[in-house]
Write a structure and sequence with these properties.
97 residues; 3-stranded antiparallel beta sheet; globular; alpha+beta
Amino acid sequence: MSLHAMHWARQSLKTLPSEVKAPARLALMLLADYADEQHASWPSINTMALEMGCSVRSVQRAVDLLEEHGLVRVETRQAKNGRQMSNLYFWLSMACL
C-alpha cells in the first residue's frame, strides 16, 4: 500500500463531479490501496468485484469512468502464452501532491 496514493485518492475524491457515484469512488480507493511505491497497481477485475461487492461489469464501468476523468491510465497485459493477465493501473496526477 502506498500512503501517498491513498492521500492522493482521497484528495481526488473531492474534485470528482457529483455524477461520479459510489462504485467509481470505491474503485479509486481500492486501486490506491493496492498501489505500490511506483504508483501502479494491478488487482484483477474479479478481485475488485469481490471486494467492492458488485459485478465485474460494474467494476469495468467504474474504472472506465476513472480513466475518462483522467485519474488513471489502464494498460492491458498478456502473458507470453497470450493469456490475459490483470490490468496495470497507473496514477496520472500523482505529481500534483
